[in-house]
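Researcher: I'd like a structural prediction for the single chain below. Treat it as a standalone chain; there are no partners to consider.
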Amino acid sequence: MIKLLKTSDGSHTIYVPEIDEHYHSVHGAFQESTFIFIRNGFDFCEADPLSILEVGFGTGLNALLTAIRSRAGSREVNYTSLENHPLDNKIILSLNHHEFAGENGKEIFHLIHSSPWNVSVNICRNFNLKKIETDFTKSRPSGKYDLIYFDAFGPDKQPEMWTREMFTGISAVTNRNGILVTYSAKGEVKRSLKACGFNVTLLPGPPGKRQMIRAVKI
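Model: Treating it as a single chain, here is the predicted structure.
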């Protein structure tokens, strides 16, 4: 049974005993998501309007932080998130992510989670969300995207999500000069991304993580 845990920065994550894996870094869920996906992804990508694909909706933390950042800016953001195992509502209601999202964080977090699946919904100013319940390994995403948040469970826990075939599918829907960010810096991930047409850069990682990947579609 999954367990709710508080990470070092006070924000919640979820632990899955069956695979001995956490949804976020135990060194800080909020600071990890902010560092990897917002600072090194959203803020680095100049596309306007901006189309984002997230692989691994999880607790909705990345979506929440992106909505907050979008609301404060001027770009229209269309955010599509893929998830094979949506969380139970009891767990969602226990999460404290909204406490780290500033003004209107609680309202936006509620709207993100209460919005229906497989339908595009305007969550707040400049931010439209479409959550898709799907198995990424069996169904390729459609559309074209400027920014990819690749946030599946780790390659050692969920190897089927990190194969070259999966990244081939990602590459096919990524615009030229589009950006992919992920917390993983494993050699095989780097090689797969390069083979699929990305220019790969290793960046310093968030607390507790030596490096992360940012890749640009050539």
